[in-house]
Design a protein that fits this description.
Layout lengths: L14 E10 L2 E7 L7 E8 L2 E8 L5 E6 L5 E8 L2 E9 L4 E5 L12
Antiparallel strand pairs: 1-4, 1-6, 2-3, 2-5, 5-8, 6-7
């Protein structure tokens, strides 16, 4: 399909801006994918809601944010935006309720995007 496979990115790994957002009331444990090329997740325990973070995620990785409500339950919603485009949202409800929002990044930079 015309894509050159022999070109390797020079220097640092290209990334895309990803915004994770968690809305709701109370607190939630939030786990999200950030710049780590090894794919390690960052965990924020008992984050006060609403919570929002924009990070750079390496191309080819799958940006993911997951939330787990506490024993008091309630409701929280996660949302995932890649390069300003809304990709997915999900809602967690009830005691220890869970939700995950995930997306995917292309394996290379799109030359048509600035």
């Amino acid at each position: 399909d015309g894509r050159p496979f022999d070109k390797k990115p020079e220097g640092r790994t290209p990334t895309a801006a990803v915004t994770y957002e968690v809305t709701g009331e109370g607190t939630a444990d939030i786990t999200y994918q950030a710049r780590s090329a090894s794919g390690e997740a960052v965990v924020v325990k008992a984050a006060a809601l609403p919570w929002r973070k924009t990070v750079d995620v390496p191309l080819g990785k799958e940006p993911t944010v997951s939330i787990v409500l506490g024993e008091k339950g309630g409701q929280a919603r996660c949302a995932l935006t890649i390069r300003g485009r809304h990709v997915q949202s999900a809602t967690a409800t009830g005691t220890f309720g869970r939700a995950t929002c995930a997306g995917s990044l292309p394996g290379r930079a799109d030359p048509t995007e600035s």
